[in-house]
Specification:
This protein has about 210 residues and is α/β, with parallel strands linked by helices. Helices cover about 55% and strands about 15% of the residues. The strands form 2 sheets. Strands 5-4-1-6-7 form a 5-stranded parallel sheet, sandwiched between helices. The chain starts with 6 loop residues before the first strand and ends in a 5-residue tail after the last helix.
Length: about 210
């Protein structure tokens, strides 16, 4: 007997927020480097390990911005402004999928977000007007760990108070899908909205 799905968990980058180009993250970094009038290599040298640590919440927002701004000899305010703009220029809200998620919630399902972000990508991409409607939102920089660490999947399951077999996880990266499957979650590897909606129909989550 198949377990009934009771919660749908969405990734953000590449799922609930869509790239405007084939290499959106490169676009983000190039945008900032251009604004700062430095080379891409100089930008990567300036963010170095701070950026990676920030995604896992191992460096606070204040410390991350302070370190990068000092490396570049720029004010934290200006740096934050450029970074937020860079994300907004390279990503857009997947309004169609958000609408679908809210319809699913009205059908009685729980909906959640599980995403790897650092403080400024979270601010730029995960707008409160959308995220406040989700039952649970877990972001790596707040959780202190990131996908594909199985612990972050277990954390969202604990928050939802559901066993893995009663959840569906949607992500656009194969390496993030693997641990979810291993835990017993149902999964959809996101390619585009049409494909995702068809998969949801097959699983009888949406009509």
């Amino acid at each position: 007997m198949k377990e009934e799905i009771k919660a749908i968990i969405f990734d953000a980058g590449g799922v609930l927020t869509l790239p405007k180009s084939k290499l959106p993250l490169r676009g983000v970094h190039e945008f900032i480097a251009k604004k700062l009038k430095i080379s891409l290599d100089q930008w990567f040298d300036a963010i170095d390990s701070s950026y990676a640590k920030a995604i896992e919440g191992k460096l606070s927002e204040e410390k991350t911005l302070s370190t990068i701004s000092k490396n570049l000899n720029i004010s934290q305010e200006k740096l934050e402004k450029y970074i937020l703009k860079a994300y907004k220029e390279n990503f857009m809200q997947n309004k169609q999928l958000f609408e679908q998620a809210f319809k699913i919630k009205k059908q009685g399902y729980k909906i959640a977000i599980l995403s790897d972000q650092w403080y400024l990508s979270k601010k730029a991409l995960l707008l409160k007007q959308y995220t406040k409607k989700f039952d649970e939102v877990i972001i790596s920089c707040d959780a202190g760990m990131r996908k594909p660490n199985p612990k972050i999947y277990k954390l969202i399951l604990k928050k939802l108070k559901l066993p893995a077999r009663q959840t569906l996880f949607i992500d656009n990266q194969k390496w993030n899908i693997k641990p979810a499957k291993k835990l017993g979650m149902k999964t959809i590897l996101f390619e585009n909205n049409k494909q995702c909606f068809n998969e949801l129909k097959k699983l009888r989550v949406s009509k």
